[in-house]
Amino acid sequence: MQKNHQGQIGLILLLVMGVVIAVALSLASRSLSDTVLSRQELESSTAFRLAESGVEAAMNQLRQDPSQTVAGNGSAGIYTSDYAVQKLNSYGLYVKEGENAYLDLTGFNANNNLSITWSKKNDNSENLTCQGEGSGNAPAAVEVMSHQAGSDTVKFSYHNAFGCDITANGFAGSSGGGSDYVSTVSYDVPNGTTSLRIRPLYAPATITVTGSGLTTQLYLIQAQAEGGDAKKEIEVKRGLDAPPSIFDFALFSGSTIVK
Predict the structure, then answer these.
(1) H/E run at residue 201
(2) pTM for the complete prediction?
(3) For the chain, which end, N or C, has fewer CB atoms within 10 Å of the first or last residue's CB respectively?
């Protein structure tokens, strides 16, 4: 009987040791995983910050001289980064309701119409149900303002969203914007136009403008950084420098502003 008891005790000790070893291995594995995750998180955040610094450097160079070729690189320890700016002869940005898309048409041939397309179909904040006038009651209508610098003249045109003809506002209609966008118009640019502003009404809208003969309207900044196991890429679009929309009438005033 004594031998049997000793055998049972030995078996219990083996089981206890097995449990202790399993717990120790589990804790070691978790500690190792936490260490790896901490290292990866540090590498990821450092690479992201370095890519962000590339975007900021590109922005700064554009502010100083938009006509220059903007590109550069940097490093910090094991991390390396580079950035470059691509100049786009078209416009394509999300614009909040009441704010403006700005285009520089200096030297643009007025015989070439512009294609203005707006409001993404797959975005519920842009492709609203047409209920009538008022913010949030319809997909964006657009106000197009052309400025002729030589004569200090401003011309306005207005277009409702496709399929949303609000007769109360008296705006012109628009055509369907294809598979991706709600609306589009072919805009006849007035002679002598030097700048164009497009303002969404009733709702925000992603606005794209294309046309033969357009010069740089948008800057696409691309930056990346890598180090260790991390690699981060950032892409930013920047429009041309323009006064805020609240200065529209001051900007286009031919002489003084009288209350």
Answers:
(1) strand 193-201
(2) 0.78
(3) C
